[in-house]
Design a protein that fits this description.
By secondary structure, this protein is mainly beta. The protein has two helices and eleven strands; from the N terminus they run αβββββββββββα. An eleven-stranded antiparallel sheet has the order 6-5-4-3-2-1-11-10-9-8-7, with no helix packed on it. The longest helix is centred in the last third of the chain and has 18 residues. It starts with 5 loop residues before the first helix and ends with a helix.
């Protein structure tokens, strides 16, 4: 290659290495199976749950079913607000520290950069029809997927979508998630609305939280 062509090659290589942002990924519906991940004390730590996630930009909805009395929904708006709705209650509970759905997508090139710990690539798998890259991590404390301290996670090679993880928390409890289906489809905005009975209370609480953080809508 001559010198005149080098700048163009550098630009192309740089573009390929840029992280994939939430807005770059189409809307997607994901179905998965969880084991060992508690939902803020509402699910048995060693139980199994089915979950369905809807992702649209930075917004996330997770519906989970861990058996009678342990069914619920988590809404995350991408602005630091997260709420948990259990089938056994008509109240909304703060869910910032609930691990389910807290990590849904990562930079395909440097997935652990924003998580604050190191990880090493370990290979490839096909999960739910999607090519994925595996990354091994340790000493994450509670910052790994599902609140894990160490383990391996697998992300979609194109979009960085979290497809699976297997690890342990700081108490050596095993936690696991495996995606069973991925469906890229348009998702209506109403999918991410809180139940009407508590919607106004949630909006008021979010505004108060934003004011305390100096965040403007």
């Amino acid at each position: 290659m001559n010198r005149r062509g080098l700048p163009l090659a550098w630009m192309i290589a740089g573009a390929l290495a840029l992280p994939v942002h939430a807005a770059d990924m189409p809307d997607v519906k994901v179905q998965a199976v969880l084991s060992g991940v508690a939902t803020g004390g509402t699910a048995k730590p060693g139980g199994v749950a089915a979950e369905t996630l809807w992702l649209k930009g930075d917004r996330v909805r997770v519906d989970f079913d861990a058996g009678q009395g342990r069914r619920g929904r988590i809404l995350r708006d991408g602005r630091g607000h997260a709420w948990l709705f259990m089938s056994t209650s008509d109240r909304a509970l703060p869910a910032q520290h609930v691990p389910i759905g807290a990590i849904t997508r990562l930079d395909p090139v440097q997935p652990c950069w924003k998580l604050g710990f190191a990880c090493d690539k370990v290979g490839q798998r096909v999960i739910a029809g999607r090519q994925s890259e595996g990354w091994r991590y340790r000493h994450a404390e509670q910052s790994g997927p599902g609140g894990t301290d160490s383990g391996t996670f697998w992300i979609d090679a194109q979009y960085g979508l979290l497809l699976a993880f297997q690890g342990k928390d700081v108490g050596e409890h095993a936690r696991r998630m495996e995606t069973t289906a991925v469906d890229f489809q348009a998702i209506p905005d109403d999918t991410f609305k809180a139940p009407a009975a508590v919607r106004q209370d949630i909006e008021n609480a979010d505004r108060r939280a934003d004011a305390l953080r100096g965040y403007s809508h």
